[in-house]
Specification:
Blueprint: H1 4-11, H2 15-22, H3 32-45, H4 51-54, E1 70-74, H5 77-82, H6 84-99, E2 103-107, H7 109-113, H8 115-125, E3 129-132, H9 138-145, E4 150-153, E5 163-167, H10 169-182, E6 188-192, H11 206-217, E7 227-229, H12 234-248, E8 255-258, H13 261-273, E9 283-285, E10 302-304, H14 307-322, E11 331-334, E12 337-339
Parallel strand pairs: 1-2, 1-3, 3-4, 4-5, 5-11, 6-7, 6-8, 8-9
Antiparallel strand pairs: 10-12
């Protein structure tokens, strides 16, 4: 088992210097280059900071001084700013942490990807726990969990051995397909995005799994030419829908299930521009119930996801983990409901 002494010998500094860096002790300055070498040695030698280091101990006699009350939020900054789904989750997190006197610190994925400096990043910022939306490698998850608590949101973390706040994506889409079938639809397409780094693997994504499962249960065919992987890009949803119409105008699906409202709104624009009607020619159903869906033309049917509540529960969970009120990697699966609007309101016979 690696000790402070091992790190000190590896770097060529005193044990007390190593201790000050790992415990984030700011009472005496340590050269930044030395700090970097120490954190590189921590990673290389596999040292796991003890409970004091994890709590960022500054003064052992006064426990109040060991707390920084800072929680990290790991997400693409543009994601939280321009995507209404993530923006609402973020608001729920921020409001809840603020109510309990915590501070939310934004950390980019890039700042965590240098494994040698990962703990340095966490400790220098004084982070007591991390909330994850951006996908990070499993090896990083395991490494960080040895130091501070983690809570994951969104589909990247559903199957990981960590605390998760999410909703059942597969069940949500199954309910959408079942609703469309009850309305008389038999030819139903799908627009979504895949998983993994390049978003190529559509078949592993839970919303697509729900679509496949519901179609199979209804005895309906899943036609590959009616399945579009947008890689979660609105422009690709618009372009691919245009291509589908031009390619198969004589035989189009009567309804399309979209894995997000933003994918649906982009595809609906392509339909309108091609002089087709919604829902008379093609009905649309989205997921997320973002605000702009109410004002699309026509208003978009969707799945209401409790986005703000997801953020609120993620914040409460990470606080309770930091305060050691929760020690198990709990999984909170929140409910959803269908919101029926004009984009899917026409019954077919």
């Amino acid at each position: 088992m690696t000790r402070l002494k091992d790190i000190a010998e590896h770097v060529g500094v005193s044990i007390s210097t190593v201790s000050r860096v790992i415990q984030n002790d700011r009472t005496r300055n340590v050269n930044p280059e030395t700090k970097t070498k120490i954190w590189e040695a921590v990673k290389e030698l596999g040292y796991i900071p003890n409970q004091h280091a994890r709590n960022l101990v500054i003064n052992h006699q006064d426990k109040k001084q060991t707390r920084t009350m800072k929680i990290g939020w790991v997400a693409d900054p543009a994601q939280a700013e321009i995507n209404p789904y993530f923006a609402t989750i973020y608001t729920g997190i921020r409001d809840t942490l603020t109510n309990y006197d915590y501070t939310l610190i934004s950390i980019t994925k890039d700042e965590l990807e240098n494994e040698a400096l990962l703990l340095k990043t966490i400790h220098d910022l004084g982070i007591e726990g991390l909330l994850l939306i951006s996908r990070i490698d499993d090896s990083l998850i395991e490494y960080i969990q040895q130091t501070i608590p983690l809570v994951g949101l969104d589909f990247f973390y559903t199957d990981k051995k960590m605390a998760v706040v999410d909703y059942d994506r597969e069940a949500a889409i199954k309910m959408v397909v079942q609703h469309l079938v009850s309305q008389g639809h038999r030819e139903i397409g799908f627009i979504g995005g895949g998983v993994k780094e390049d978003f190529e693997d559509l078949h592993a994504e839970y919303r697509f799994k729900g679509y496949q499962s519901a179609m199979e249960e209804a005895g309906l065919e899943v036609r590959p030419d009616w399945v579009i992987n947008t890689k979660w890009r609105m422009d690709k949803s618009y372009e691919e829908m245009n291509q589908l119409i031009k390619r198969s105008r004589a035989h189009l699906p009567t309804a399309i299930v979209c894995a997000s409202d933003m994918m649906a709104i982009a595809a609906m624009r392509a339909v309108i521009e091609n002089n087709l009607s919604i829902p008379e020619d093609i009905a649309f159903f989205g997921v997320d119930n973002i605000e702009m869906g109410k004002y699309s033309s026509p208003p978009l049917s969707t799945v209401e996801i409790p986005k703000y509540e997801m953020g609120r529960m993620a914040a409460k969970t990470i606080m309770e983990m930091v305060e050691e009120k929760i020690t198990l990697p709990i999984k909170l699966i929140l409910p959803f409901e269908l919101v029926i609007r004009e984009s899917s309101s026409i019954k077919r016979t």
